[in-house]
Amino acid sequence: MRIFLTSYQSIMLNKGGPTYKLLQLQKALQHREIDAKLFDMWDTDMKLGNDDLVHIFNASISTFSLAKNLVVNSAKYVVNPIFYSNHSAQKIHLYRMLEAPFRKIFKRTYSDYFFTKYICDNAEMVLPNTRDEGNLLCGALGVKREKLEVIQNGVEERFAHADPSIFEKKYGLKDFILYVGHLGPFRKNGLNIIRALQKIDHPSVIIADILNNEEGAACREEIGKSKNITYIKWLKHDNPIFASAYAACHTFILPTRYETPGRAALEAGLAGANIVITPYGGTREYFEQFAEYAEPASIHSIIKATKKALEKKKDSALKDHIRKNFLWDKIAQQTVEMYKRVLSK
Questions:
Q1: How far apart, in whole angstroms, are the C-alpha atoms of residue 66 and residue 5?
Q2: What are the tens digits of pLDDT across the range 210-254?
Q3: Which among 7, 22, 73, 342 counts the fewest CB atoms within 10 Å?
Q4: Cis peptide upstream of residue 261 (ω within 30 degrees of 0)
């Protein structure tokens, strides 16, 4: 059995959740002595046989050509779609129905939903991160439910052993509010998060990659006006400061428009932080009653949930929950069992 892991071309530039999911799964699979390698599109000698399986992360126009060529070459693949929308399944389904006649008139006119559906329909298995994502794929795109298997996101155990003193000594801060992620993408809700932090009388830290777009510029300007926010430029994921920041903060916030389910929040929770997160995208399937949930469109809701989390003492309940259910070794075990079933067909 050979497993080829792949995704869209710019995945290593984005350095987001899919980047670390792919790399950490590869590491966990190799730890189980599975021949898991990164798909090399420059390999002129590549031949995919009956014992080979391609695992695609992301189902969109960015991975459509790869999926289509795998189909043409009778190569098996599974896909982790990483698909979610704040639109209801009914609204997306209606959009697709209205779109269909236009495609007959205007040839080669496709929506994002077309590409996602094609990739999922031709996959051996479709692997949503959450039940909410799976329900949306079925209800909105008509993906067959028997093709679905929810395989949750994992987290590295090292965050459970993070040392808060590294961050505290370097920045002179502890028990602060922390946000980690990109600023600039619409989904990340950066302006509302920053404006909420400005109105909370508590030290805050933002570790972020700020994009060079209109919203990114606005976020940068707002941070510059903030007296209680310390901004730290993006760090490498394996930088000890990252894990230390999670352990040193009191409350980690991720009230974005949706998360499936929010890798950084899992890492922070495993490091012992209290969590404030969006309710959208299936986050409750991971954080259950151990987090505060904030309505991302409402600055007032973000402030209220964050203050409530700050009032609570940090404890080990969420940490123990994540350690029991979401470490990469457990996720890799489920993934290997799925691979074997697919290849045995």
A1: 12
A2: 999 999 999 999 999 999 999 999 999 999 999 999 999 999 999
A3: 73
A4: yes
Give the residues across from 126 on adjacent strands: 79, 148
Residue ranges of the chain assigned to CATH 3.40.50.2000: 2-154+327-343, 157-325
Pairing type for strands 177-183 and 125-126 reads unpaired
pLDDT digits (tens, 9 = 90+) for 78-121: 999 999 888 899 999 888 887 877 677 766 777 899 999 999 99
Query: Domain 157-325 classified CATH 3.20.20.450?
Result: no
Q: Which residues, 6+ apart, have CB-to-CB distance to 41 below 8 Å?
A: 66
How far does CA 115 lie from the centroid of its chain?
20
The CATH number given to 2-154+327-343 is: 3.40.50.2000
Residue 338 corresponds to which tokens in the numbers above? 């799925």
